[in-house]
Amino acid sequence: MKRKMTSSIALALTVLLSVMTFVPTAQGQQRLKPVADTGVVPLGPNQILRLTVAAGDVNGDGIEVRFGKAAYMPLGCNNDGVCKHGLSSQSLSAPVMLNPGEAASMDITNSGPVRGMILSNNQNVRVNAMIVDMTTGKIIAVLIAG
What we know:
1 helix; alpha+beta
């Protein structure tokens, strides 16, 4: 009986110890959260939406970012001039790891209304979104977040 009880306690302690060592590992893997969203931006001919991300104050292993993009199609307008758009496509990039002093960018080239999003495991990223005229290279608009 004593031997059975000792074995049960040893087994319980082993399970408890393995769970306790697993929990910090699971907590260390932070989920990616949205850090910037351009909203729906209408692009004209020869225009792109360029998203850039730079690592801010990063300690240790760097940060993980993903670029999201969505394109919309017109669904019609009412008498007040309010136009409705429906989602026609969306995608999310593979994860990109940024260390201090590194940056990444993505161009969204769809014509018509588009949306750009940045997701990261660190809120200390600096994000710029700009509309660029590809024929002249001029920047038409800039959104700075972070």
